[in-house]
Design goal:
Elements (H helix, E strand, L loop, with lengths): L1 H34 L5 H5 L12 H32 L3 H15 L3 H15 L5 H25 L3 H9 L4 H12 L1 H17 L2 H6 L9 H5 L6 H10 L5 H34 L1
Length: 279
């Protein structure tokens, strides 16, 4: 009976694994099969024209780059700095526990709620929907992720490393800068890369804050203007009637899927590279 039960458990787990892998591979295969044939140089390098009824996603690509770059520049110092303070400087353990619990709670809040709050706060302060409001909303969304990832990475650095540096006469900040942070940089980089992946696929929050415009803008002018990212453009083209809209939606889906796979691969490679250096 015990062997039969073990075989049944192993069979159930194997079937679950096979179903999950088949579902993931099937979904990716379907999106790539439908989207890759629709990719063209004209689609990637032109702006949409409603007068000529043509579709182009160059503004959406640039808006995505502007938004992600701005969000990362803001969220990375905030998240890493907060994690360093909580792990290395804070002495009130109850307060640290409350902040950690709050960060974990914020990580589970639906993104549509962040979009609503971002619209009421950032969009009103900035005078309407714009990429900067979307970037600030993404900062609030991803700050708990960067904070907790960095904090857990800091905890993996052995306490003996800190004590040895203190024994040599190093100051607190010097120990953190030369011993602690280099010892956990793989976790920091991995958390940052995964946050970029989440920003790349975010749609609900940006619908309220970044807007739907498909106009070409420079970096600084674009931040102050309404703009659709790739994920928002996918939503718009999938719901908008007209020739080439559905094809453009599948093309954008294929681009987002390839970018997400690339980001996950980069995170794995970065982590492996830092692990080899430690060895």
């Amino acid at each position: 009976m015990r062997k039969a039960k073990d075989a049944l458990r192993i069979g159930a787990m194997g079937a679950s694994t096979l179903f999950t892998c088949a579902l993931a591979v099937g979904l990716m295969g379907y999106v790539l099969a439908k989207g890759l044939p629709q990719l063209s140089w004209e689609l990637l390098t032109t702006a949409p024209s409603y007068l000529e009824d043509t579709v182009g996603i160059l503004p959406d690509i640039l808006n995505t780059l502007y938004l992600i770059l701005t969000a990362v520049v803001i969220v990375l110092p905030l998240g890493v700095g907060a994690a360093v303070y909580l792990n290395e400087y804070a002495t009130n353990k109850k307060l640290v526990s409350v902040i950690e619990y709050a960060a974990e709670t914020l990580s589970g809040i639906p993104s549509i709620i962040y979009g609503l709050v971002g619209m009421l706060v950032f969009s009103n302060l900035l005078g309407g929907s714009c990429l900067l409001a979307g970037a600030l909303t993404l900062v609030v969304m991803n700050l708990p992720t960067v904070l907790r990832t960095t904090q857990e990475s800091l905890k993996t650095v052995p306490q003996s490393y800190r004590e040895g540096a203190f024994g040599l006469g190093a100051s607190k900040w010097r120990v953190i800068r030369t011993v602690v942070l280099p010892g956990c940089v793989d976790g920091v980089v991995t958390g940052c890369i995964l946050s970029v992946g989440r920003m790349l696929g975010e749609t609900a929050a940006l619908l309220y804050t970044a807007g739907f415009a498909h106009a070409l803008n420079g970096f600084f002018s674009g931040l102050g203007s309404s703009g659709a990212t790739l994920s928002v453009a996918l939503y718009v083209y999938a719901k908008e009637p007209g020739p080439g809209r559905q094809e453009a939606a599948f093309a954008i889906a294929a681009i987002l899927l390839l970018l997400t796979l690339g980001i996950d691969l980069a995170a794995a490679l970065v982590k492996r590279q830092f692990q080899r250096r430690r060895l």
